[in-house]
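Aim 2, interim progress: modelling of the carboxymethyl coenzyme *A-bound target.
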Amino acid sequence: MAQTAQLILDDKTFELPVIEGTEGEKAIDISKLRDQTGYVTLDIGYKNTGATKSAITFLDGEQGILKYRGYPIEQLAEKSSFIEVAYLLIYGELPTADQLKAFQYELSRHTLVHEDMKKFFDGFPSKSHPMGQLSSLVSALSAFYPESLKPSQTNEELNQSIIKMVAKMATVVSWIYKKSLGHPVIYPQNKYDYVTNFLNMTFGQRTEDVTIDPVVIDAMNKLLILHADHEQNCSASTVRIVGSSDSNIYASVSAGISALWGPLHGGANQAVIEMLEKIKEDGGDTDKWIAKAKDKNDPFRLMGFGHRVYKNFDPRAKIIKKACDDILEKLGINDEVLEIAKRLEEVALKDPYFVERKLYPNVDFYSGIIYRALGFPTDMFTVLFALGRLPGWIAQWKEMKENKEPIGRPRQIYVGATDKDYVDIANR
Ligand code: CMC
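Predicted structure of the complex, ligand included:
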């Protein structure tokens, strides 16, 4: 017999269905609670609310487990390419060699952005933040592809919108970087795979083909894979909720980019490097900064530490920490902030404040050190997170549409003023 939960309210007992996921997660289904009882639930910040049933990513915060479509993140990060993982997330299974070839080919046919898009790039001040530019530019793409505005697209149309979104994102990101330098943009070239094309458009010169170091290509693939999805986080939930009103793919992804920008979410990777630099300039006394992070009267937080869901360790951080050592060694770079980061981690992991609150390094703690070693400026870090997260946002958006989920619209408990009569302005 199906398990139910009993709820006693005003001396009446109500039966609520219990549902179980494939990894044993259990939930009480309260979708009919208001009809049955007149009550809603209250969970500010959705700390304990399942917003959907999803088959994309599984995450166990206690055990430090992360899997995309059932495949452990460790295996994907070691063996796969970013574009293979993008296919996995979006279409549900790892591609065969032919499927991967066809996917790459389709992507390569859509990497160009409309020439008129360049006028938007020109409109931004050269020092404006790349995340603000990215969110605006992705939204602007909808103006050039009006067929994507149709609320009910056929499967083929939907797939074309997805291909265009993935293909053009790498071009837009690299052009933001080129424009920030005041350099001419580099056009995409079909002979390259997705990640190499992106790196060539970012670091290449107009007059000559540069050879991108394979170490850099591998590192970039790994970082993008580790960021590719993370179930119902702030930006993915934003993408789903915006898309649930039948907004087009560009508008939905643009909203996700805005959600990611904040320093409590993807913006943490920029904040971490800025913090480490500040600690270095201040003499490198990690104890002092740990004390500041613990002081409730000090707004300082240890950026790159803590996570809403991971309460043991963040498996992505484990992989990135090792990758960070490997990549810096291979590239022959000695970065002092890496030593500061390691010291901070060591001190924090022994400190009762961090231990009791289960605060561990997250994905953003070491990623910025790698991005910097690869040659990216600090304000591009969160844009790189967005490039990696794109397949996840698309997979979440597509799943929401395929499940025919209703428009997202939470309830509230109103606590404002009641029954006031309008007072003429002269009498206030
Ligand atoms: N430094 C110092 N104290 C912290 C930190 C930190 N980084 N993170 C949490 N705490 C404390 C917090 O003050 C609170 O203490 P108390 O119980 O005494 O009030 C307790 O730990 C619980 O924190 P919370 O803010 O209630 O936890 P949350 O689940 O709402 O927030 C978080 C999670 C990631 C926003 C938070 O840990 C944080 O602000 N971390 C720093 C920013 C960061 O690195 N963000 C990137 C997250 S991973 C990338 C991504 O996917 O977005």
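Residues 71-410 form a domain with the Citrate Synthase; domain 1 fold (CATH 1.10.580.10). Residues 109 and 392 are 22 Å apart (CA to CA).
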